[in-house]
Amino acid sequence: VIFVFDAESHEVAESFHTNPDPYVIAMPPDGKVAYISIAGANAIAVLDLENLELTRTFDTLAMPTGLAYIE
Asked: Looking at the chain, which terminus has fewer C-beta neighbours within 10 angstroms, N or C?
């Protein structure tokens, strides 16, 4: 499960059930999306942070346990 917290209230704004083992989250500086490695599903999920929706999933060849954002 992935939880999104409201920065002001510190309350859970939304939660997302993903395939097993969400592992690492990376975000570009604009803060519009988050990329989440789902190690147990060999995938990367894309979370739209403005609309709080999982918008896409990319399959990977092996268990993704690390992410890096490079501009």
From this structure: C
For residue 23, give the nearest of 52, 59, 64 by alpha carbon: 64
3-class DSSP state of 66? coil
Q: How far apart are CA 36 and CA 20, in angstroms?
A: 12
- The torsion defined by the Cα of 41, 42, 47 and 52, in degrees rounded to 10, comes to 0
Question: What rounded mean pLDDT belongs to the chain?
Answer: 90
Contact call for residues 42 and 32 (beta carbons, < 8 A): no
CA neighbor of 19 nearest in space, from 49, 51, 50, 58: 58
Q: Which two tokens stand for residue 71?
A: 């501009």
Q: How many whole angstroms separate alpha carbon 35 and alpha carbon 58?
A: 10
